Structure formats: C-alpha cells, structure tokens
Amino acid sequence: MNKSMILPADAAARAPAPPGRRRANRVLSRLRRDKTTVAAMAVFLLIVALAIFAPLVTGGEPYAGSALERLKPIGTPGHPLGTDELGRDMWTRLVYGARLSLISGAAPVLIALLLGGGLGVVAGYAGGRVNTLIMRTMDIFYAFPAVLLAIAVCAVMGPGLASTIIALGIVFIPSLVRVTETATTRIRSMDYIEAARCSGVNDLQIIVHQVAPNILGPVLVYAASLASLSIILAAGLSFLGLGMPPPNADWGQMLNSLRQAIYVQPWLAALPGMMIFITSACFNLMSDGLRAAMDVQDG
Amino acid sequence: MADGALASPAAADPRDRGGPQQPLLIVNGLKKHFPIRSGVMGQRTGTVHAVDGVSFQVRKGEVLGVVGESGCGKSTMARLLMQILKADEQELIFDGDPLGPRGISVAELRRQMQMVFQDSHASLNPRMTIADCIGFAPRMRGEPRRKVAARVDSLLERVGLAPAQYAHRYPHEMSGGQRQRINIARALALEPRLVILDEAVSALDKSVEAQILNLLNSLKAELNLTYVFISHDLNVVEYISDRILVMYLGRVVEIGPVERVYSSPSHPYTRALLASKPSHDPRRRTLAPPITGDPPNPINPPPGCRFRARCQFAEAVCEHVLPELASVDGAGHAAACLMQQSGSGHSKAPA
C-alpha cells in the first residue's frame, strides 16, 4: 500500500501518463528488480541474438562437413565446440539450430494462445451450453496423450517445420482453453462485470476491456511455460524423425544423430541437450518472474 | 427523509414523460424461480421461489426502502430489475413506457436506471484506474475522450474525492468508503434517474456509513434522483426512506410510508422484524419476544401464507389461502395478512 502515501502533488505530476503505459511501466520496473528473471532474460536474449545473427557469428555453413574431421572434441582449433559425426562444426550447427528450435518453441504457443485463448474466453464468458460444448470437445483432445497426438498429426502431415508447429499447436490448445476458461469463469461472476453489464455495454467490449486485462496474467504465464515444453516436444519429434528432417540443424535432430557418438564424445553429444535445457529453463524462469511482476494486488 | 424542498421540480428533467404523478417505475408480477438440478442427467428436483410475484411502484423523487432477512430475495429482485438476471415473468413500466418491443429497450432502461453493489471491492475492476472505471460506460457508448474525462472529474468532485489526487489510483489503493463513493460516481456516470442501492452502505463501518448516507441524500437533491434502497439495517432504512417495502421469502408482505409502517406495523412479520431492532437507549429495552426459528426453505414452499410456520396467530385458514396485499388504511399502507382482511376466515380479521 505504499501508493497511498504519495503526496497530492506527486500524484498530480504522475497523472498525465496514460493508464496502459503506466501499468506496463510498473510491470517492467518490478521485473528489473528480480535478478533471476533478469539473468534468464539476458541468456534468452543472447540466444535470440545468436540465432538472428547466425551468419555473422559463425562460418555460415552449417551443412559443410569434412570426413577427416569427424567427432573432434570440444576445444579443437578451428572448431571451438568440436565437430559432429559428419565433421560439421558444432558451434555453427548449434547457433543455426537455435533458429529452428526457437521458432518451434514460440510458434505453436502463439497459435494455441490465439485459438485456445479465444475459445476459452468465449466458453467462460458465455457459460451454459456453449461452455459445455467447447469444454467437452476439449476433453476429447485431452483423452489422447499429448506426445502421441503430436506424433499422430506429424505422421499424417509428414515431417517438416510446418507440421511440427501445427501438431504442437493442436496439442497445446486444450490446456490453454482450460486455463483461460477457468480464469474467465472466475472473473465473470465478479460484481464489476455485472456493473459493466448494467451500464448497457456490449459483451465484446466487456471481454476486451474488463475481462481480458484480468486473465492476461495467468494465461500469459502459462503460455510462457508451454513454450519451454514446446521446445522439448519439438526436439522430441525431431529425435523420432517426425520433425525437421536431416540435414537441417535442429537441436532435437542433432541430439538424435549424435546419440551414437555418446561413448566416443559424451560431452559433444550432450551439447544440443544442454541448449534445450538452458532455453526451456529461461522460458520457465521468465514466466515465473512475469507472474510475480504482473500481480497487481500487492502493489 | 424527504428532500422535497431542496429538489428541483421533477418536470425540470427533459426526459420526464408522465409528469410528477406518473410513478417512475411500476413493477407488476415480478417472478424468478431457480430450478434445482441434481443427478447425472440434471433432473429438476426442486424450485427455489426466489422472487414470487412481486408488485410495487416507485414514485418520482422518493426513496423506497426494501427490507427483509437475508435470503428473502432482495438482491435477486435488484438484479431482476436491472435485467442482469432474466425474470420468468415481469411487467416493468418505466415512466409510462413498458419494457419491451412496444416501449423502452433494455439498453435505454439501463441508461436511466443504475445500480450500486454491496461489495465495494468486488464491484471495481482491480486493473482499471478510478477514472477508467467511472468513465467506462460513457466511453464505450462512444462519447469523446475529452468530454468523458471532464465528466469523470466533476463526478469525483461531486462524491467528495479530489480528481487530481484520486483519478489515477487503483481500487486497492483506496479505503472501503472511498471505493463506495467511486461506485456511486460510476452509477451516476450515465446520468440515471433511478438508482438501485443494493446494501450499498452495509459493509461500511458506522461513521463512514453516515457519510455515505449524507452523500446519497445530497446527490438525490442535486441530481433529482430516485432511489430503491435495499438494506437489512432497519435504522438506516428508517433514516433514508420515504416508503418502505418489507419482503419475506420472495413476496411483499407489507408496504407503506415509513412512519406508518414503523409506528403501526400491520403484518406479524413486520412487527417481529421491528421488535428485533435494537434500541440505542438502554432504558427502552425491547420487551417483545424476538422472532424465532429460521425462515422456511424457499425450495418448494408449502401452499398458504409463507410466514405461518413462525407466526403466533397462524390458524387453519392460513394453510390454504395465500394472502394478497390489501390496503390497511387507504393511505398507501398495505399488508398481505389474512388478519387484516375482512371475510378472510381468520378469527382476528375485522368484521
């Protein structure tokens, strides 16, 4: 409750800031104080930057191999992170792999956020039969194990980036619908929603202005944690040969092909797995920090 | 507490259609039954008679107090009037215009009729600033930003909060009394003529409650408002109301001018209710025995008078006849009790 101690003059001086930006500022300033989250963001941004500027920070040839330089250990001159079983530079492939892995981590979540979030808000706000219809349909999807469902979709559509994204999107939709629906149902019965309905404002306006800001926190946090799961599942699909086909550089697929070398160069074989771990840990830590920072009540 | 001397004449309002004699709101046969479903297939196993055929009128410029025990249907009635809950049966006439396709629309009704909720915390969106909360409805109805901002400032001033200091705060940064002032300001943002106050001061402590009551009185005079004031606090209702409506298990048992009902209650329930009101004066202790027992279950109530299980005057006839409201003195005081109705068959009925 530190805000109530603000002097009138101070409050008046701050007044002109538009409310939306003020809220964003508050979240940002609180995020900045959270050292774990700042560290996770720094590492994540580094990975993103490496992925974007991949041709600049590497030799730019992730597919170029040399039969003479196969499975060189970490620290070999010219190959700081060694080479894989076909003699391709690991550093280059890991950096290029970040591109595909980040896309397959973020894109399915964005798809699920749009479709699942939309369905969840509609189900939660409408209630009654609409809710039953949407939620029971989602229960059918829940009946399949997530990985199995993703494998089935990928198997039908054939391997590739697009089918990975679509398959994982479908896998994530039911759980996002559930989270959004639960949050919306809780908000819908609040007096302030009734008050808004009393004032003759239409349902879409109420959803956009009154419901959405209140459910955005939990839903975004959940989506961020799904992103780490998405990277792992995408890696899993590649590992099974249903994701990105070789010779594409993709962490899951690299893990798969280096698996045979695990007795020869165990550290080398572990590198793609470590990248998956670091990236998904960053997503998890950032979502935790985001949840703490977006909590308005203990302002 | 009539503020007739302060209020400008009702005809000054350009929206006034029926003149001062036309009741602002006529409610006829308002009914809401909630089905109780249970079992796997959701069979209907009972019905809660929440509001069961309520009829009354609200006159222009008056404060109609609504009292009753918790669970008697007061809040359900408020939500039915606001059309947040869909009534099973209803006839609403707002200033001569019936609600429906031939008269006034729900949107137009809500523009002229607003509600203040009991829970000042739950009724404000925690992620909206005070200014956004109050200006929400006018903004969404397409009024320009600048105009709404000016309106919000003047409303904040009217409810006694300095705009520069409070407009950009969030609800959790305010006290309960301040939040209720904001709720009142929000209800007034659409310039309603009728405000329903559903236990609007019940959650506040006594000193703040008095401030809010005074604020409501002065707003009523300045803005020419009419209130339906729902409360379980008999002292507060007596203070603010012109007329009072007593509800019991979804039905009106007594209605009339507040002085008459308080001085000569005609329904045994009203009598018991008033007897339970503690006096501030220790020398005037309540001697009448308080009402005993819980109200009967509103699920599938038995036929006849709803109050008969707790009524000391109940007779055989009360089990069969559901008493309707009947005038007690010809001056707007009516009660729904067979004892007041000649020829009803009750031994205490007037000849």
| Beta strands of chain B, count | 12
Within the largest sheet of chain B, what's the order of strands? 6-7-8-3-9-10-12-11
3D shape of chain B? globular
CATH topology (level 3) name of chain A: MetI-like fold
Tally of separate helices of chain B: 10
User: What is the average per-residue confidence, as pLDDT of chain A, rounded to a whole number?
Assistant: 82
- Rg of chain B over CA atoms, rounded to whole Å, is 21 Å
* Protein chains sharing the most extensive interface: A-B, 32 and 39 residues
CATH class of chain A: Mainly Alpha
Radius of gyration of CA atoms of chain A, rounded to a whole number:
23 Å
Q: pLDDT average of chain B, as an integer?
A: 86
Low-confidence stretches of chain A: 1-17
Major sheet of chain B: size, sense and barrel closure?
8 strands, mixed
Uncertain segments of chain B: 1-11
Beta-strand content bin of chain A: under 5%
Biggest sheet character of chain A:
none
The residue fraction in helices of chain B comes out at 25-40%
